[in-house]
Structure formats: structure tokens, C-alpha cells
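sorry for the late reply, my laptop died twice this morning and i had to redo everyting from scratch. anyway the thing you sent over, i finally got around to it. pasting the sequence first so we're on the same page, its 312 residues, then the predicted structure underneath. double check i copied it right bc i was rushing
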Amino acid sequence: LDDRMDPYASTDAAARHLRDLYSMFDDWELALAAYNCGPGNVRKAIRRSGYKKKFWEIYPYLPRETRSYVPQFVAICYTFNYAPEHNLFPESHQIFPRFDTIMISQYFHLETFAKQLNVCLDDLLNLNPNIKRGAIPEGTKNFALRIPADLKDTVVSNRAFFYDAPGKVGKEQLDYLARNTPGSTYGREKQVYRVRSGDVLGTIANRYGVRVTDLKSWNNLNSNMIRVGQYLQIWVLPTYNSSTKDLYASSARTENKAVAIEGRRVHHVQNGDTLWEIANTYSGLSIEKIKALNNLTSNTIKPGQQLIISSE
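ok and here's the structure:
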């Protein structure tokens, strides 16, 4: 779930943030500048300008993008307010469908639910843009799912029926994706590690049974460079401890098991996977068979790719 994609939640958050920025600077143009580049950069520009307090007075000391952002914002506001005076009219109006909400506190597969309601899946996803992978994840509490308003009574009066199948279908696949997406913290506990002399990301990742790509994502690293004394956030599986670390290190690769999708067993390629390793992970599989099942003309594969390993 990503509430930044929800137009209602994100607009509310943006308005609250702008209110807080205005309380800091007591000026809407400075608040907008801080919204774009952060209040720290605006304070720095104020200091460098000799403690001037207006946007155009500190303009030369602001980041280039912010110098454009505020005038563009003003121009758009002007356009909305005075469009008819300049013969500007929208070519079409998009009418948002009337909707109501139902509360979900379980895993919930939207495609199955859409089929039950006989509504278009895309319409349901458009009403709920904060749902990233077509399902509400397990552990979610009181999620307000938007549905067409005219179907609300039908769902409420047959809640047991409408909640049963969507609570089961696709659960294993979503759980797999959640665990294996680079940088995911799903089902893990946070630990903090202080880098010592001689450490490299590879050895740290192996010690904690995680991937280098995860370490980089969790710590916003653009390269493999780390420094002595640096603190790294590491998200480990709940049962990780000193006596199980070797087990986790050995299973970090084999965790990538096949999942069933549309009647086929599919392997999701992870960083570092090769056709030889995948062929040796599953019984009765060879490099040639993988290439034939997936119409591959070379041995090159990439992370995130889905490889069919069985059509049964």
C-alpha cells in the first residue's frame, strides 16, 4: 500500500505540510519554496541573502528548480482563476464515479472481488490507486476500500460471501513478492550494525542472510562504498540470531522458490541468479529446458524476470 498515490490522503498530507511551512516562514511564497526544496535550504538562502524575508529577495540563493517552481505555481493558479478571460477551456471533463467505502481488515484480492461484483477491475483499481499489487496485504487494519456506491448495500448484506474468496486467492504469490522485492521489510525486524574495519557489503549481507541490493536500498546507498563507524539498518527475519545465521545465509538464495501462476510454476529471478543455479534448484530441470519453456536464445537473465520452470 502506498498512500502517496491516494489523492485524498496525499492532498490532506500536502495541505498539512504547507500549513506547517507557513507557520515557520509566515509567507506563502517561502512556504511553497520550502515545500519544493525543504525548509533547511530556504533558511540557508535567507542567511546567504543577509536575512531577507521575501522570495524574490532570496531568489538567487535558492536551488535552480525552486527558482522555477514557485513562479510556475503562481502561473498555474492564475490560469485556473482567469482561464475564460484568455479563451482557455478544458476539452473534456472526466466525471469521477460515485463511490462508497467498505472496511477491510484482512488479505483481500481485488481481481476476485471485481469478478464477484461483475465490475471492471481497472475501475476498482482507479478508485483505489494506493493499492500497488492488486491486493490488500495481510495485517492491514480498517482499510477503507472504495467501491461503486450502488453496490455498497449488496456487499454489506452478503459480507461473508464477498469476503471469503478474495481472502484466499493469490495470497501465496503476493506474500512471495512482498518478501522478495528488493528493499522490502515485510515480515522482518530491524537491527542496526556499525561498520568495522575490513567490512564490505557482501560480507555483512552474508552474515545477516540478506542481499546486497537490500542493504543498499534500506540505507539509500548509491554504491557499494561504506566507511568505518557508519551505521547500517538491516532488516532480518524474526528468528535470526547468532546460532541461526549460517542457516539464513545458506537459505537467502533458496528462499526464491517457485510459485504457481495461471497453472504454471514460475521462478522470479533475483540478483545474482544464473540459469545453471536455477536448473540445479529444481528437480528434473535443465538449462535447455528453461530456455525452451521461455523461448530464450541466450543464457542472459535479469532480476525481476519471471521464468516458467514447469507448465504443470
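The longest strand covers residues 99-104.
thats about all i looked at so far, will dig more tmrw
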